[in-house]
Design goal:
The structure is a single chain. The protein is of the alpha/beta class and about 230 residues long. It has one domain (about 40-225). The protein has helices spanning about 1-10, 30-35, 55-70, 70-95, 110-115, 120-130, 165-170, 195-210, and strands spanning about 40-45, 45-50, 55, 100-105, 145, 150, 175, 185-195, 215-220. Strands 1, 2, 3, 4, 5, 8 and 9 form a seven-stranded mixed β-sheet that branches. Helix 3 (about 55-70) packs across helix 4 and helix 4 (about 70-95) crosses helix 6. It is globular. The relative contact order is 0.17.
């Protein structure tokens, strides 16, 4: 029993850095600083995509720890990266009113296995960071989470699919509920975009109910496939 609890504890709070494996630190200072890259920008479906880090091995480990192990340090670092992109979007788009954050949902079966919805945890962390910072570009801007995207068809795990297969897999995957919503500052949030298939499916679902996001923000991106 004790060994099981110890193993579980080490899974959630590993005795080494998540990124460089340095012992006795869940996330060492060096890796934390390396992760804090300047915000970058691309365009997806005619709207700005903000992200801080190019996706590589360390980013994969960080996302895996946050998603599958519920690691708080990993989630906070992802949230901080997304928050930096959010700050930049507020400046670039001159946003002064409330922002509605729409997360890309995971399959219900995946959430059941994890015991939580990763994107909900991530957005909650982003909102907490925003509330704790009073010296940002627009500290009066309020953030709110909107759970308006639902998965309405069976989709495969995207990890083993190429760009074309991902696009086919995600086509028509989402339904946007609450069509009466009239927010002008909708921002789509995810931890990672690779081919952009999930983002495009979300934008398409929102467009059906006459909603148009003003930006997309992720922690990491694979820009070669966008």
């Amino acid at each position: 029993m004790l060994s099981t609890l110890k193993s579980l504890s080490q899974l959630i709070y590993p005795p080494f850095c998540l990124l460089c494996k340095k012992p006795n630190e869940a996330l060492c200072l060096s890796c934390s600083l390396q992760w804090q890259q300047p915000v970058k920008q691309r365009v997806i479906e005619g709207m700005p995509l903000y992200f801080s880090n190019y996706y590589e091995e360390k980013g994969a480990r960080l996302i895996l720890a946050a998603k599958e192990s519920g690691n708080q340090a990993a989630r906070n670092l992802l949230a901080l990266s997304i928050y930096k992109g959010l700050q930049q979007s507020i400046i670039d788009l001159k946003i002064k009113d409330e922002i509605d954050l729409i997360g890309i949902p995971s399959r219900a079966s995946v959430n059941r296995v994890r015991g939580r919805a990763h994107i909900d945890d991530l957005i909650n962390s982003i909102i907490e960071i925003h509330h704790s910072k009073r010296s940002g570009p627009q500290p009066e801007v309020k953030l709110k989470q909107l759970n308006i995207l639902q998965i309405v068809k069976k989709i495969k795990d995207q990890s083993g699919l190429n760009k074309v297969s991902r696009s086919t897999n995600m086509s028509g995957a989402y339904l946007a509920i609450h069509p009466e919503l009239s927010s002008k500052n909708l921002i789509i949030v995810d931890d990672l975009t690779t081919t952009g298939a999930s983002i495009r499916a979300a934008i398409s679902a929102l467009s059906i109910v006459n909603l148009r996001p003003v930006a997309v923000i992720t922690a990491c991106a694979v820009t070669a496939h966008l």
